[in-house]
Design a protein that fits this description.
This protein is α/β, with parallel strands linked by helices and about 300 residues long. It has 2 domains: about 1-40; about 40-300, Ribonuclease Inhibitor (Leucine-rich repeat, LRR (right-handed beta-alpha superhelix)). It has helices at about 5-10, 15-40, 285-295, and strands at about 45-50, 55-60, 65-70, 75, 75-80, 95, 105, 120, 125-130, 140-145, 150, 165, 175, 185-190, 195, 220, 235, 240-245, 255-260, 265, 280, 300.
Length: about 300
């Protein structure tokens, strides 16, 4: 059929009806697809606890689910919490969609979910518990909303595929071993108001190439950057007064550390096994004394 005849057929009453029917069918199909892909799971798929004001998801009843779409409410009350150990070691889970009502993700909630590749953290979330995503070895990236103010110890420990994470400005503490063993983590922003970087916080983050220590930090904890073998340069801010043992142990790529006069205490082994390191500091400072005592080259700033 020629193009002219097609145009004429479309103008006919039957053609118009056929065109309208086609549009209706397409819209119906689109609606069905939207429903399928956005519909939340049934509350029956989960175990939960209810109070008058909120609901806490405590576990997974339907073990066949791989892609979770957690409902925003159960029996008329909002789902605000994922409980401790709720999905721990659920090795079949590959993706999770959390509801916008959520405020808290409990300790070890997704610990050992080795197949988990993607999860959204909604803008309502305030707290991420200790060990929350520990051992999630398939998780490659994660975006934390500005609403998050608390990240517990071990929260992302041994997330070996995690390459990048942005820490919200509301976070003031990076807890003990938060990112330990995140061997592919290449970049991380530390907000300027963070005052505490916990022990072994970035231990064995061997792909981490650059780190900026905020001016509010007063102490570099033990093993904080141990095994960060891709780090090449570190500037210690003037707010820091002490560097603990093994803080930069086995940072084999480290070539320069600037240590200000404010640092009065550098504990043993802080820079052991850093074969390429030169310490820069003020003549007669604790930095120079430490460098000379440990046969590390020293240069004046």
């Amino acid at each position: 059929m020629s193009q002219d005849k097609v145009k004429e057929a479309a103008k006919s009453p039957k053609g118009k009806i056929a065109a309208i029917c086609s549009v209706v069918v397409l819209l119906a199909i689109a609606g069905i697809l939207v429903f399928i892909f956005t519909k939340s799971d049934s509350p029956k798929d989960y175990s939960y606890k209810l109070t008058v004001t909120d609901a806490t998801i405590t576990g997974l009843e339907n073990k066949g689910l791989e892609s979770l779409k957690i409902p925003s409410s159960i029996d008329g009350v909002p789902v605000t919490k994922i409980g401790e150990n709720a999905f721990a070691n659920c090795t079949a889970i590959t993706s999770v969609k959390l509801p916008d009502t959520l405020t808290t993700i409990g300790s070890t909630a997704f610990d050992g979910c080795v197949s988990l590749e993607s999860i959204n953290i909604p803008n309502s979330t305030v707290s991420i518990g200790s060990g929350c995503f520990s051992g999630c070895i398939s998780l490659k990236s994660l975006s934390l909303p500005d609403s998050v103010t608390e990240i517990g110890p071990f929260a992302f420990a041994n997330c070996t595929e995690l390459t990048k994470i942005n820490i919200p400005d509301g976070v003031t503490q990076i807890s003990t071993k938060t990112f330990i063993g995140c061997s592919k983590l290449k970049s991380v922003n530390i907000p300027e108001h963070v005052a505490d970087i916990g022990g072994a916080a970035f231990c064995n983050c061997s792909s981490l190439k650059k780190i900026t220590i905020p001016n509010y930090v007063t102490h570099i904890a033990a093993s904080a950057f141990e095994g960060c073998s891709s780090l090449t340069k570190v500037e210690i801010p003037k707010s820091v007064t002490g560097i603990s043992s093994y803080a930069f142990y086995k940072c084999e790529g480290l070539t320069r550390v600037d240590i200000p006069l404010t640092v009065k205490d550098i504990q043993g082994h802080a820079f052991d096994d850093c074969p390429n390191l030169t310490i820069y500091g003020v003549k007669g400072s604790r930095a120079e004394i430490y460098a000379r005592a440990n046969n590390i080259p020293f240069k004046e700033l």
